[in-house]
């Protein structure tokens, strides 16, 4: 069972089985809230939520609309899109922290949540670096090299990652290298 200081995870997916599975898989370490619509998820949203697991396509408010409203309300939670939607270059401008393709199993879900919860302790530049690295890795796993080479969005992500890498070298040197390596192990998606 969780304690009062357990991180709060909000799972929003229109498939009740999915949020029930997430609750079951995470319940021993986290305080898990579940909703089956974007509207209900937003009503449940507050500053106590640490991580949102969000389906991208839902009836009513889509996951993208929910994500935009979470960011517009300036909640400081981390958001992972957990979706069956194949990523395209439009993800470059979406303000999520991780993109996970369904189906997802318990081990992968727990790893994603642990990484996102651990990001809270880091500087915002490092969390942006993580988010951009995940977008790059997701696109590289899904798109052929030729499409990547032709994409302005992909090129912009690479440029921003390089800027953050240069600016963050001093910051990274101050952190425990084992801690940083563990965090960024997730930057490369597992082979399909």
From TrEMBL:
CDD domains: REC. This is Response regulator. The modification 4-aspartylphosphate is found at residue 55. InterPro entries: Bact_response_regulator, CheY-like_superfamily, HalX_domain, Sig_transdc_resp-reg_receiver. It comes from the Archaea. Residues 8-117 form the Response regulatory domain. Keywords: Phosphoprotein.
